[in-house]
Automatic annotation (TrEMBL):
This is Arogenate dehydratase. Pathway: Amino-acid biosynthesis; L-phenylalanine biosynthesis; L-phenylalanine from L-arogenate: step 1/1. It comes from Setaria italica. The keyword Secreted does not apply. It catalyses: L-arogenate + H(+) = L-phenylalanine + CO2 + H2O. Pfam families: PDT. Residues 265-355 form the ACT domain. GO terms for molecular function: arogenate dehydratase activity; prephenate dehydratase activity.
Length: 355
């Protein structure tokens, strides 16, 4: 079992193009992203700098960089290039921090584990796209502690190189989740082709560096400033209620208390049998403990369960891990009793985080 904790909630990359174009990496993460504690605009409280040479901006951290120093002060890792929404969330969570861009979600986890960064701010779910399952899985792979969460309202912009107009655009490039969130608007603008890349700011950077004339980026207004692009349209997301919830991760847990509101996250698998999930959830309902989130993921170490149904061939069923968030502190005896009763029903208890 990994005992993890976190701080109380803060109040609230195949289309035609020029010869110089390099095929961007296609993201393997599902088209999902994250929602919950602080709401802010895509740029939030970030200062808007003057347009800079993209080459001078920090490049995303790779695994090979994990032993390199990254500067003074609180260092916060995030996935993406400078100007990504995750950077805005990191600065919202830690306003005076030094942000550390990372190429992949796992690199951000590794950066904190290897003391290259002090914290990581990574998306968990989005109000339109749902959960980011990759980060749920990485929580069990890495020994980090959730220490808080931050909400970010996402406002997408359509960006292009100077002189390019909307009618010149044949394709839109961005993170697949951002493209999905702007699907209807892009179609109405006559932009039919989509190109998925690793992150929104990375799309802006690629378009600026390769001086593409027929492709626009879906990214933040800050990315436009950083990479010298023009904003052709603002707030192009199909739904104005577009909020991403990020988790804040650290090497050390926080101490549970009862003088402030806390949330607790747990991950478990259940013994086989009818009604087991109902019984597991009942331990909280009977004590009037509110559940704010429940997510199931296939149990990779127990992928199939065989059930004998008296037929010629046994049935095979997926076995699952259950991720549950509850509004309770583990310092509360009521919550301790609920968890004690839950453990009786469990096949395996994998993770607990208080934040």
């Amino acid at each position: 079992m990994v005992a993890t904790a976190s701080s109380p909630p803060i109040p609230p990359t195949g289309w035609e193009g020029g010869a110089r174009r390099q095929p961007p990496r296609t993201l393997s993460m599902p088209l999902r992203a994250s929602r919950r504690s602080i709401s802010a605009s895509a740029t939030g409280d970030l200062p808007v700098p003057a347009a800079r040479d993209p080459i001078s901006l920090p490049r995303p951290l790779t695994t090979a960089d994990l032993m390199e120093p990254t500067g003074d002060g609180l260092k916060v890792a995030y996935q993406g290039c400078p100007g990504a929404y995750s950077e805005a969330a990191a600065r919202k969570a830690y306003p005076s921090c030094h942000t550390v861009p990372c190429e992949y979600f796992e690199t951000a986890f590794q950066a904190v584990e290897g003391c290259v960064a002090d914290r990581a701010v990574l998306p968990l779910e989005n109000s339109l796209g749902g959960s980011i399952h990759r980060n749920y899985d990485l929580l069990l792979r890495h020994r980090l502690h959730i220490v808080g969460e931050v909400r970010l309202a996402v406002h997408h912009c359509l960006l292009a190189n100077p002189g390019v107009k909307i009618q010149n655009l044949r394709s839109a490039m961005s993170h697949p989740q951002a493209l999905a969130q702007c699907e209807q608007t892009l179609t109405k603008l006559g932009i039919e082709h989509r190109e998925a890349v690793d992150d929104t700011a990375g799309a802006a950077k690629l378009i600026a560096e390769q001086k593409l004339q027929d492709t626009g980026a879906v990214a933040s207004s800050l990315a436009a400033e950083l990479y010298g692009l023009n904003i052709l349209a603002e707030n192009i997301q199909d739904d104005t209620d577009n909020v991403t919830r990020f988790m804040m991760l650290a090497r050390e847990p926080i101490i549970p208390r009862t003088d402030k509101p806390f949330k607790t996250s747990i991950v478990f698998s259940l013994e086989e049998g009818p009604g087991q999930l109902f019984k597991a959830l009942a331990v909280f309902a009977l004590r009037k403990i509110n559940l704010t989130k429940m997510e199931s993921r296939p149990h990779k170490k127990r992928p199939l369960r065989v059930a004998d149904d008296n037929c010629s061939a046994p049935l095979k069923h997926f076995d699952y891990l259950f991720y549950v968030d509850i509004e309770a502190s583990m310092a509360d005896p009521n919550a301790q009793n609920a968890l004690g009763n839950l453990k009786v029903l469990l096949y395996q208890f994998l993770f607990m985080a208080l934040w």
